[in-house]
Amino acid sequence: MKTQCLLVCKMHFFLPGMATVSGLLQLCVLVSFVMVSHSQIKLISENLCHSLTWEARNQTTIPMHYRVQYKSERLPWINHKECFDTIHLSCDLTEELRDPKQYYCFRVQGFTENGTLLWEEEDYRYFLPVKSTILGPPTVHVAGCDRCLVIAIQPPVCQPKSPDKRTSHSLVQVYHELTYEVTLIKAGIMNEAPEILEFATVEENFTTTIQQLLPRTNYCISVNASATVNLGQPAKPSPWKCAVTGPLSEQEQE
């Protein structure tokens, strides 16, 4: 296991009556599987919905206001219109980071009510939405048939925090192909290993049938989605859905 130094961010502090103090925050961590970030700002991204959060500073008793800015490789720093003067500790960047295949970075400024800038923090690690967003649980419907289950799956969707914001991205169109991992178990049976099935699809609404199951048996399934380009992200499975298979057909009973 090697020791590496990870350049995380640059922090500037501005105090009234004092010269600017500029410090470079460098984090040295022991690297095994995950590089741990101590940055004060954090981007939470799921299904191409993006929310930037940060921590309040206790350097002053003066009420703090915040300004969020973002940039891409092609554009300079841009002020976020809704988070240009906010007292909240989060900002929705879903509409601003609209191109999932573009690199972005962002920064937050803390200032007083009269506009005095107290601190600024930039995250220099460029964020690529198509690779870094987490794919949440897909929408799953299941119905029983004769010794089988019919499963209908729709891809995960962005659920913006603001009701007036809607994402136009279809994850199937963005990734071109999604892989659904279906975990199948018998309800109430704890000593059997689950059956894992994988289905790759380019369809927006995917339907498949699992055959050769036991009749009159309650089966449950959970599904998670993945794409080749962001396999390093953790999977978020759907809630369990259950259905009872039907009886033997007349032909099988004869």
Number of helices, counting only DSSP H or I runs of 4 residues or more: 3
Main beta-sheet annotation: 6 strands, antiparallel
What's the shape? elongated
Give the spatial strand order of the biggest sheet. 2-1-9-8-5-6
Radius of gyration, rounded? 24 Å
First-last Cα distance: 64 Å
Q: Look at the structure and give the mean pLDDT.
A: 81
Q: Uncertain runs with pLDDT below 50, 5 residues or more? A: 1-38
Beta-strand content estimate: 35-45%
Please count the beta strands (DSSP E, at least 2 residues each): 16
What is the string of helix and strand elements? EEEEEEEEEHEEHEEEEEH
> Level of helix content?
under 10%
Supply database-style keywords.
single chain, 254 residues, mainly beta, six-stranded antiparallel β-sheet, four-stranded antiparallel β-sheet
What does this structure look like?
This protein is mainly beta and 254 residues long. 5% of the residues lie in helices and 44% in strands. The chain is built from three helices and 16 strands. A six-stranded antiparallel β-sheet has the order 2-1-9-8-5-6. The termini are far apart. The relative contact order is 0.16. The N terminus is likely disordered.
